[in-house]
Amino acid sequence: AGFTVAIVGRPNVGKSTLFNRLLEQRKAIVDDFSGVTRDRQYGVAEWCGKTFNVIDTGGFVSRSEDVFEKEIRKQVLIALDEADVILFVCDTATGITTLDDEMADVLRRSPKPVLLVVNKVDNAARLLEANEFYALGFDKVFFVSSISGSGTGELLDEVVAQM
Ligand code: GDP
Ligand code: MG
């Protein structure tokens, strides 16, 4: 129970790095099963005195079969089923890929709020490039660097505002 945020996105965009960043204050209660295949990871985050669950949906990467069918569809189903807010993570280092476009097509029809998180915005040059992600058609776009934590405060402010 409780307010739940799900992190979705194609492999390597930085979902798990963002997950760990959001759980920074509460890391002690996060399971650490490195190398163990699980289809999602749960944690609890706290921001502005409010506590909420976070799900990293990316733990089941299966590159041997159709990536969209096996990974993306499942991530989105988990998110739509369990989450109150969905964080759709993209990667400004690679730009918009076909898989991003396919996920965006599904997520734009989500009845739950979707926040577009453009990750790996590590510097000013990356911020300029990151503007291309407005083309995916989401109202709420956040530019973050999960590695440094830059921009994640604004993202957390919006998550808490949705509670
Ligand atoms: P996932 O597959 O979506 O869970 O992605 P990971 O969290 O495993 O990250 C994939 C790679 O991107 C790793 O090498 C991370 O260190 C790197 N990464 C994640 N966030 C950032 C970021 O904000 N900036 C940069 N430069 N690299 C990042
Ligand atoms: Mg991951």
Automatic annotation (TrEMBL):
Species this protein is from: Rurimicrobium arvi
Signal sequence residues: none
Family as reported in the entry's similarity comment: Belongs to the TRAFAC class TrmE-Era-EngA-EngB-Septin-like GTPase superfamily. EngA (Der) GTPase family.
Transmembrane parts of this sequence: none
Subunit relationships: Associates with the 50S ribosomal subunit.
Name of the protein described by the UniProt record: GTPase Der
Annotated positions binding GTP 1: 9-16, 56-60, 119-122
Ranges where the EngA-type G domain occurs: 3-163
Role description: GTPase that plays an essential role in the late steps of ribosome biogenesis.
The organism's place on the tree of life at top rank: Bacteria
